[in-house]
Design brief:
This protein is of the alpha+beta class. 26% of the residues lie in helices and 20% in strands.
């Protein structure tokens, strides 16, 4: 490259110069074919997101690291935060923190969900895609739901509809989280469920 061509710094600049010398009109056109291989599982996870949003929930995204250590949790050698040196094996603690954060800001109708991969190690590395769902407070802020509170029946209806659209064998593991575990002054009951959605791709949902 001539010393006076300060604008040529990398291979892209060289390629541009070659194309200019040859002449752009003299270079034969060639169609670029990008294979389209959509992932049913990813698309179905998007369907699950749409389903939850239609049900009035908001999606949250949390860091995959936690201070909670379990027997089968994976430890990080050089964590960014020394207080969070393990990878999550479940989503419950993260969602409880999300709920408490919103309650401390006077939110009286909280419906949250998270879809994330979790990892564990039991002789071999295990990966699962899970959904965690947490809710508390008013059923909604519209005139019909303003005076109603979220209860276990509401969660049962949610899971029943989920089974119909996605996974027929979703476990009925609805738990009521103790207020002692939440850093908040609210008194409403908190309900939570979490289950694996690895095999959700065989079902479909459209609103």
């Amino acid at each position: 490259v001539p010393s006076y061509r300060h604008d040529i710094r990398n291979n892209n600049d060289l390629a541009e110069e070659i194309a200019r010398v040859i002449g752009y009109d003299n270079i034969k056109r060639k169609q670029i074919k990008i294979p389209n291989n959509p992932s049913d599982k990813i698309n179905n996870h998007d369907n699950i997101r749409n389903y939850m949003i239609d049900f009035g929930f908001y999606e949250v995204i949390n860091f995959p690291f936690t201070e909670e250590e379990r027997i089968n949790s994976i430890s990080i050698d050089n964590p960014l935060d020394s207080n969070k040196s393990s990878m999550r094996t479940n989503l419950q603690m993260s969602l409880k923190n999300n709920l408490a954060f919103n309650e401390r800001r006077q939110k009286d109708s909280i419906k949250l969900f998270e879809i994330s991969d979790v990892y564990s190690f039991d002789e071999q590395l295990n990966k699962q895609t899970k959904i965690g769902i947490i809710a508390s407070g008013r059923l909604g802020n519209n005139y019909r739901d303003f005076s109603k509170n979220i209860d276990k029946k509401y969660f049962e209806n949610l899971l029943s509809s989920f089974k119909e659209h996605f996974i027929s064998d979703v476990p009925d593991n609805i738990i009521e989280i103790s207020r002692d575990e939440i850093n908040s002054k609210m008194k409403n009951k908190i309900f939570y469920t979490e289950f694996v959605i690895n095999d959700a791709s065989s079902f479909n949902y459209s609103n």
